[in-house]
Automatic annotation (TrEMBL):
PPM-type phosphatase domain ranges (all copies): 186-467
InterPro entries reported for this sequence: PPM-type-like_dom_sf, PPM-type_phosphatase-like_dom
Database matches in SUPFAM superfamilies: PP2C-like (SSF81606)
Organism expressing this protein natively: Hymenobacter coccineus
Protein name (record): PPM-type phosphatase domain-containing protein
Length: 468
């Protein structure tokens, strides 16, 4: 009764009616009259309903305005993110439906409380949750809550592929992939312009060359022109051609005959002398080749009135020949391009060079640097191995090494090379596979496609040579 008395008192007061003290008994009797009690009951019921309606409307507004943050998605990349009503405190929803996900390539699983799918478009996009809360009648309309989902574009689509200037005097093909017999083996090699160059229409700085030599030797060369050097594309091309031309020279062909005798001596006896003689031969012969390349680059720079630094390029090359006792492999390297040989059953890896990276390597070095030939480490840039057989000889620029091996410490790991072979075989995000079979008619095309693999932050030129 007290509550009813206060309710009517407040109602009268809001309408300008003040009950004086001497009318209070009359007011009490007034409230006890049957017809007024009925009105009072209805008034209380309406008041309760009004408050309930307000709480419902307030709850609806709270849900509509509630900030919901869900992880960003990326076009073309599988997406899975929680979308949990209980986590958002939406336990009082009595009905709902979600609209707009299908157009984004997504769907909602109530069982797993997840948004999943593969987004098909990018942007700051929205989908909507249509809902009813407790307290709403069954026939009440659904209310709409919009949820923002940021879908990033596929980063691959942000890169342009602009043609390089074919009128440039030092222009060369942006992408080259070849498959060729070489000696008693085969060579699969590809060199592709990196996305960072393609997007601005600049040139491929990497290069390669190979040749079967008249004396049974075979040479494979890979060079990586420095991106900061304005004529690096020419420097790498000159370096590769210079190595091949050196070993084609009749004097070099004749001098290599000495190696045949040294190998036979080495195979028939043990001792430090034969090993020393072999090492001396490798040092003298390959050292002359490397130095001649350096001098050719120096002469070209002088003739074109550019600096030698403008032609900066790394350089690696390998010569191999089959003997009765196995394969002889000779190597040279300057820069950050590795050379590796895998044994026949792919259980061991032999590194044929060390690479100029990191604190102890002192950073990348180039064949254009005169100090390379004066440094006390110059003799360690050469390699010689005599092995029974091998499955693969790999040579690559850092455009392959960086994304696939990441750090120098991974190069001696046969597990990483087995992983690399699996990658070539199709175990990669793009499912690009290279069937390393000499009878595969699509071999070059397969490697060319594989070379386009996506690796965030790794958009340099890529060169890979495989002898198998």
């Amino acid at each position: 009764m007290a509550n009813a008395n206060q309710l009517v008192t407040d109602l009268f007061k809001s309408n300008g009616i003040i009950i004086p003290e001497h009318r209070m008994k009359l007011f009490d009797r007034f409230l006890q009259e049957e017809q007024n009690l009925a009105i009072l009951h209805q008034l209380k019921k309406n008041q309760d309903q009004l408050m309930a309606n307000w709480k419902t409307e307030d709850r609806i507004a709270e849900i509509v305005q509630q900030p919901i943050r869900i992880p960003n998605a990326t076009v073309g990349k599988h997406y899975a993110a929680p979308f949990d009503f209980e986590q958002y405190g939406w336990n009082d929803l009595i009905a709902f439906r979600i609209e707009g996900l299908e157009t984004l390539g997504l769907n909602y699983s109530a069982e797993n409380n997840q948004l999943t799918g593969v987004p098909t478009q990018s942007g700051d996009l929205k989908f909507s949750v249509h809902f009813k809360v407790e307290g709403q009648p069954e026939e009440a309309p659904f209310h709409q809550k919009d949820v923002l989902l940021i879908i990033n574009p596929d980063p691959k689509t942000l890169w342009q592929n602009l043609e390089s200037d074919k009128n440039d005097p030092y222009w060369k093909e942006d992408d080259v992939t070849l498959f060729s017999p070489i000696g008693d083996r085969h060579l699969l090699v590809s060199s592709k312009r990196g996305r960072s160059h393609a997007t601005v229409g600049s040139f491929r700085e990497d290069d390669f060359a190979f040749k079967e030599l008249p004396n049974g030797w075979n040479v494979v060369v890979v060079a990586d022109g420095a991106g900061s050097a304005k004529l690096a594309r020419k420097g790498s091309a000159l370096a590769c051609a210079g190595v091949v031309n050196y070993f084609l020279d009749p004097a070099a062909v004749e001098s290599m005959a000495e190696f045949d005798n040294l190998v036979q001596q080495h195979a028939s006896q043990t001792g430090a002398d034969t090993q020393k003689n072999l090492n001396r031969f490798v040092y003298n012969t390959l050292g002359k080749a490397a130095f001649q390349v350096h001098k050719q680059l120096e002469s070209f720079a002088k003739a074109q009135e550019v600096t030698l630094k403008d032609l900066s390029s790394t350089l690696i090359f390998t010569l191999f020949k089959k003997y009765d006792v196995g394969y002889a492999l000779l190597s040279f390297g300057v820069g950050d391009c590795p050379i590796a040989v895998l044994n026949k059953d792919v259980t061991e890896v032999t590194l044929m060079n060390w690479i100029d990276v990191g604190e102890f390597g002192g950073g990348t070095r180039f064949i254009t640097m005169p100090e390379i030939f004066q440094n006390e480490k110059f003799a360690t840039r050469f390699g010689f191995k005599l092995i029974d057989n091998f499955s693969y000889l790999f040579m690559m620029s850092d455009g392959i090494y960086d994304p696939k091996f990441v750090v120098e410490a991974n190069l001696p790991s046969i597990a990483k090379w087995q992983e690399f072979l699996a990658d070539l075989n199709g175990q990669n995000e793009g499912k690009a596979a290279v069937d390393l079979s000499t009878t595969n008619p699509d071999l070059a095309a397969q490697l060319s496609k594989w070379m386009d693999f996506w690796s965030p932050g790794n958009h340099d030129d890529r060169s890979l040579a495989i002898v198998f």
